[in-house]
């Protein structure tokens, strides 16, 4: 499956829906996804902005989806990588969300302690987790 088709499907869009968002036709999207037409530069820019990926990724010059950059790109990478987990967390009750936060904090603290001991040359303690 081509990159554009994959990106579109991940967003849950049809070719027609994407075309409407970008101000083009479904036929144009189809021809581009099927490598029958080249992507016009203006549409490439719109696609990169819409999907928050680099134009180089869209045209397969790199496998790196995101430009090296600021917080917005970093957030997009987290959403791409952990989107299912974010959705599960969002469906939890407020009490269970607090439990998840407490567990994550505990695991983070344990990881920091292990890193500190490793840097200082101490033997790490065995954990029950």
Structure in words:
With 129 residues, the protein is mainly α. The protein contains seven helices and no strands. It has helices at residues 3-10, 15-22, 26-33, 41-51, 55-58, 71-91, 94-120. Helix 2 (15-22) packs across helix 3 (26-33). The chain starts with a helix and ends in a 9-residue tail after the last helix. The model has no long low-confidence stretch (mean pLDDT 82).
Describe the SSE topology.
Layout: H1 3-10, H2 15-22, H3 26-33, H4 41-51, H5 55-58, H6 71-91, H7 94-120
Concise overview:
The chain has helices spanning 3-10, 15-22, 26-33, 41-51, 55-58, 71-91, 94-120. With 129 residues, it is mostly helical.
Task: Give the overall average pLDDT.
Answer: 82
First-residue to last-residue Cα separation: 40 Å
Q: Give unreliable regions as ranges.
A: none
Q: What Rg do the Cα atoms give?
A: 21 Å
Number of strands: 0
Helix and strand element order: HHHHHHH
**Which structural class is indicated by helix and strand composition?**
mainly alpha
Amount of beta strand: under 5%
Features:
129 residues, mainly alpha, 7 helices, 0% strand, elongated
